[in-house]
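Database export, one record per block. Field names are fixed; values are copied verbatim from the stored entry.
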Amino acid sequence: MQRILIALACFLMVDATMAQQQSVEQLRATALSFQRNQDFSNAVMVLDRALQIEPGNLQLLKYLAYTHYLSGDLDKAANQSAVLMEREDVDEQAFQIAARILRSREEYSKCEKILKKGLKRFEGSGPLCTEIGEVYWELKRPALAIKYWEDGLESEPSYSGNYYHAAKFYYAAGDKARSIIYGEIFLNLESYSPRSNEIKILLLESYKRVFMPGDIKQHYIKEATDFEKDFLAIMERQNSLALRGINPETLFIIRSRFILDWFASNGSKYRFYLFEHMRNLMRSGLFEAYNQWIFGSASNPDAFMLWTGTHASAYEAFLNEQQSRVFTMPSGQHYF
């Protein structure tokens, strides 16, 4: 009888622990829902309740710091973040949150120090390279900003944030190759976001620049690599087509010819997944729809809607293909 009572007591203790854990998870989910709806006071209240159950829960503490940040209460956010930074088990995301808070308070020196500490612990972290690059950009130190964005996309090639900033940087700097290549990789990694619409416009304008005579790079852009020179040399073969105007229809032909010429000349010299992805879309008959997806709305939204209406099955097939596979950039293909 005593054994049964002991077993029952153990069962009840385990059951209570599981119920408590479930309760914390439910509270976290509820707080996140409030946060997404910008109901920050309720999010904080629910997180405080969850932390009464598990005071040292790292995820809850991060959510709390980030919620204070989103609500605009930067003092509470900074205090909460400072506590996180003292923990031995602090993770990559906690460093990101701390950096966002410090940047909002314009405490750039502290922010730089925190991010360098984070990069020492999480070497080559894509998100942390993005953050520190943004800090240096705000401090008007563009050479350092692009160094970290390039480092981040090389070390973590499937993280989209560094491609976004690098594409914008090189476009502003007058570069003819990197803004295109980084911009298109970004679109495949982060296909549907407000940022993707911005980059589609940038890509369209970048292609117009390819066929402009002369070099328009700013002084802080390094000498072009062999990969860039080969890219531009093959692209410039399509100059006669470009004279018809840069639009979704001419870009479909220009880019199709580029891919054929690239693999004929450089397929064995450079393994580059973006171009392989484009060739696969050509082989499956989806490349025209892919080009319309990138350039159509950026060029002429009304014409794009007309195209998708008259090519509904082709466009749907492309969207299904795009959403059914995950685009990832392999390591070792950074030729810049």
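Remark 1: Residues 1-21 have pLDDT under 50 and may be disordered.
Remark 2: Residues 2-36 form the longest helix (35 residues).
End of record.
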